[in-house]
Structure formats: C-alpha cells, structure tokens
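Possible race condition, two jobs.
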Amino acid sequence: MNFSATKFLIQSLEKREMQNALRRLTVNSDLVDFCSNDYLGFSKSIDLKNKIQEELNSFSLVSSGSGGSRLLAGNTDYAEKLERKIASFHKVEARLLFNSGYDANIGLFSALGQKEDTIIYDELIHASVHDGMKLSQASCFLFKHNDLAHLEERLKIAKGNVFVAIESIYSMDGDYAPLSEIVQLCAQYNANLIVDEAHATGVTENIGKGRVQALGLEKSVFARLHTFGKGLGCHGAIILGNVVLRNYLINYSRAFIYTTALPMHSLVAINQAYNLLLVSQNKIDALQELICYFKEKICGIPFLESIDSQSAIQCIVVSGNDKVKNIAKLLQQDGLDIRPILSPTVPKGKERLRICLHVFNSKEEIDRLAYLLNKHLPTINS
C-alpha cells in the first residue's frame, strides 16, 4: 500500500508545528466570551429561540431537511418570501440565499470573473473571496489596504468587466473601508463594486442594515453580501443585487446550484432574527457604548499596539506566533476567552489578539481585561 499521501500530510503538519502555527480545536465554554462574532447575543437569546419554536409549531409539518437543491426539491414559498423580506429591509431589487458567507463568496466570484475580466481586491479581503477568485477565470490584483491611490492605479490598467471587492468592516482588523470614496472611484472607471457586509450586518447604527445603507450608497453598489452567523446569531447568507445578477447566479453559481438548500429551521431562524433586529436598536446603541468604553480603558497601557477600529472587533498586535499564543493562554487561564490570530492568517509581524465585544459583556469584564493586559503585556514583551 502506498502511504506517500499520508507522509505528505504528516510533513505539512510538522511544518506548521515548527512554525508554532498548528491549529487545534478547543472548547472554552466556561470562559467570558471575548471571542465569538455573536455581537448582539442573538445566538444565546431565549426570546429568539422561543420565537423560532413558535413559528415552527405553527406549521403542520416541518421536515428536518430541505430534500435537495433549490433548483430541484429544495425551494419553498417560505424561502422566496424570506428573500423578498430581506431585500426590502436592505433596500435592494433582488436577492439570493446561500448556505453560508463562505459559500456565497465562492459562488459569486467564481461565477462572475471571465477570462477577459479583472477583479481588484483589498489585500485584507476575506479568505472566501480569495478562494472564489481562484475558481474564476479573471485576472486578479490586490490593492493596498484602504489605499485609494493604489486602487486607482489598478483601475487605470484594468480590462474587461472590472469588479472591486472590499469589506465594509474588515474581519481581522475591525476597521472601516472608505466606502464613499471607493464608490466614486468605481463610478469614474466604470467598475462594479462588491461589498462584503458580514461584520456590519446587525450592528451598524441604522438598525444593523449595514454601512452601505448607512451612507445611502445602495444604488451605487453592484452586489452586497450579508451573513446571518454573526450579528444575527443564526446561519446562512444572502447576495443582494439586481434581478439580472440573481438570475445569473441561479444559472451559473455552482455553490448555489449543486448544494442542498437550507432546511426550514434555518429559514425560520433567519426570519425571526430579522424580526428581533427591528426592535434591537437599544442593543446596538449599548454595544457602541461598550466599544467606546473599551477604547478608553486600554488607552495608555504600556507596550499596547492596537489597530484603530470603531467596530466591535478590536485587535491588539503582539508580534510573533509564540508571544501572541502565550498571552492568549494567560488571558484564558484568567477566565477570558480571547484567541490569538497567527500568521499566515495575518501577515508575519502582525499577529494579534482579536477581541470581540458583545452587548452582553459587562464593563466589569472589560475592566478586568484591561487590568490583565496591563499586567501581561510588559512581561510578554520584555
């Protein structure tokens, strides 16, 4: 029997181990959550859980699965109505549900880019966009993070249909894209802007509609991605655009065509999460207050290098996989679930603690976090 494949796998894992970058699954359920993307606490909401169950109980029969892809047995009136409801909420013409944000980006970018086309993407764009671009036929070029001059350089030499891919709030830095300025550049060079709103969904100050709507740019964006597994506390994603884009994806997006559709329970959860969002402005406001409180508390801590962010994602750079893993371990031992982000997930030298703030975090918990950072950072960096 040939074990060459297993040998390769072992060598690859050993290489990661030597770099102190080997990933492992862990369960820290008893720690204070400064790790998850559950910004509004919806995934833990008893109210949301009860509303989901009430709606499910109102049906005479709910299957545990959808039975097939939406082009076969998996489509329902409920899914179609839910899509229209979400499109109305986000003030857009058309929409298409996907099973996750990863699937949505894979399905969108792999289907759009043809041989003569160009995709220009922010260097910090999510891994799912990278994977989608790899499956496309387009020429793909990065521009430096939030660098408008570099983006314009790329736009000047782009060919074919041109797509620009950005996140409204970046998942690993937590900072905002200069959306208005990028919209202007895209209009000037006839480029199609695609905005990933995954980390803006549910948490922006306009009842969580996202930064595109907050700036009134709905008609200037070719496509938007909203996901439901973060601020909305459930699962799935949706691509928003015009009717032509929807019909095109139904015909050419392999991630949509060849996957089993979301089951009814997931659709009901999404529906009820949007209903809960409509009455959750107070939670969003409270989250913004906690973000400001956190930034005040860490100001002036020795050896602390933070990435400027107004979002719920706050990052503290601790250069080197060894150092950032060590301080994360110390914080976990002190009861706080904070995870290290290692290279190669982020650039070497920019390893960081990624701290996610939630409406259910107390000021006392933030005080404790600030105290522990003040205690451990000098030791780690000495």
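Job #2 (started ~2 s after job #1):
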Amino acid sequence: MFQVTEYMHSYLEFEKPVADIEGRIQELLALVEEDGEAINVDSEIDRLKTKSAQTLKDLYGKLTPWQKTLVARHPDRPHAVDYIAGLIEDFTPLAGDRKFSEDHALIAGIGRFRGQSVAILAQEKGHDTESRLKHNFGMVRPEGYRKAVRIMEMAERFDMPLVSFVDTSGAYPGRGAEERGQSEAIARSTDAGLGLGTPSVAVVIGEGGSGGAIAIATANKVLMLEHAIYSVISPEGAASILWRDSTKAQDAATALKITAQDLKQLGVIDGIIDEPVGGAHRAREIVIDAAGTAIESALTQMSGFSPDEIRKQRREKFISIGRQLG
C-alpha cells in the first residue's frame, strides 16, 4: 500500500554555496549538450564536483541547532511512509479509534520487520499539497492518539514489539481537537506507552514536537537521526513566549537543546543514527537501512525480557531522565 515517495531536490538557505557550484556544473553540462564534442569541460566539472562535495561536508560538519531544525524539516527528507515501505513487509494498516473517526496523521498497523511481527505507529506529514492536507501536516488529533492506544493494547495482547516513527511539529491545536479531549488523549497514549509489556523502540526521523511526539515515543529505546530535533516546544513557539518575537527562533533553538547530540548527552535519547553528508534526503535508502539496523539492534537487546522487566527498564529510563534534568 505504501510507496516510497519521490521528490525534486531543493536547497536550504545555508546551502547556497553548494547550490551555486552545482548550478555552474549544470551550466557546463548544458554547454556540452549544445556544442557536443566542440567543448571539453570534463576536468572543470570534476573539479567543481570535488569542490561541491567538500563545501557540503564543511557546512554539515558545523551545523547550528537552527540549521539542524531546517534540515529536520526539509521537504525532501524521508517520511514515515518511506520507512514503512523500506523496512516493513506485509504491512497491514489498521484504521480508526473505535470512538470517533480515522486520523490519517497517524499511520498504524502491523507487519513484519526483518522476520519479526511488529506493531507500527508512524506520524506522517505528507510530501505534496494533497498528501499534506490528507495527513494534516503530521499534526495528530485526539482520535489519532486513541488509535495509538488501541494499537499498543493489541501489540501487548499478541506479544508484538512496537516500533514508532516520530515526525510532527506538535499535536493539532484546533478547536475541534480540544473539544474532543486532546490533552486527555495525549496523556492516555503516553501512559499506555509507559505501561506497555512488550519492547518498544521510537525513532525521531524529523521533528519530535512536544506532547504530540512523546505520546508515541515513551519507548524502551528512543533513537534520533543525526539531524532530527526533539523538543518540548518549537523554536518559533518558544521565542514568541520568551521574547514575544518569533524572529528569535534561532536563539531559542540553541537554548532549548533540541539536537540529537545535546539530547544524547543529557540522557534523553539512547542513540543517534548517522545521516549521510548533506542530510537524509541526499541518500534516502542508506538512511532507511541504517534506521532499520538500529531498530533491530535495540529490539535484540530486549529479546527474552519478561513484561515486568520491559516495564521496569522503561520506567527506570524515564525516571533517570527526570533525575538528570531535575
């Protein structure tokens, strides 16, 4: 059902030096196409390709938290549907919360991951206008979190590990969501994740925004892609509250400690999945496979644990975060 999405490549603002070099390469290739063998620019193209690769490496070797935020939000970045298509065999979607309706912002279902039956929860933002509207830009409504609870209960009933792919700017803040008990639904989903008796792994593949993310990320192992972000509030939201000025989002991004590297040091996450130079969108299959290897390793570490041992490990993990940051 789920197909890997295709994107046109686009450059971020701080990648302009790379865009200029690669633009020059395209100009030279166009000249060759027009004049055929009359012009030989192979050596110049090779030089520019080397320069482009080195420039990209230099840029991504010293990204600021705000630049990582932009990379985490890159429209070409692999989405949840891409990870499901690349890692989960025989995926069967399960719809509805049995109370109100289906929420397409949260994909749920069961399938086989490298020979093992698993339950899947995945926040999907969409990759074009039509799919973004369908998936509500990855902002989950109450019925989505109630569906998540249903899937968690099913995973425990059938002794299946739970794998979550986290990618949301936050839970949907609309009036209808609040009227249907958004905060209560997030709390119950978080509680269900904490009490789950089967192993669980959550991977932040893009943005991990506030309670909207933690509701499906209360896992035994929480992993992040190298340039993903995970925060209690968006940089723009924090800047608006702290300084009443959303243009100070760059300052807020630094202060919030939202990067994978900061959060690993603080003990909030358990591991970082490397991305290729230039971000996940430049080598999608490599990143998806690396995420699969990290998930497999995390599940293997919990193989043979009893439900009580699984709950104890998860409880101690989150208690230790509170002690660390308290």
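The chain has two domains: 13-62, 68-325.
Logs attached separately.
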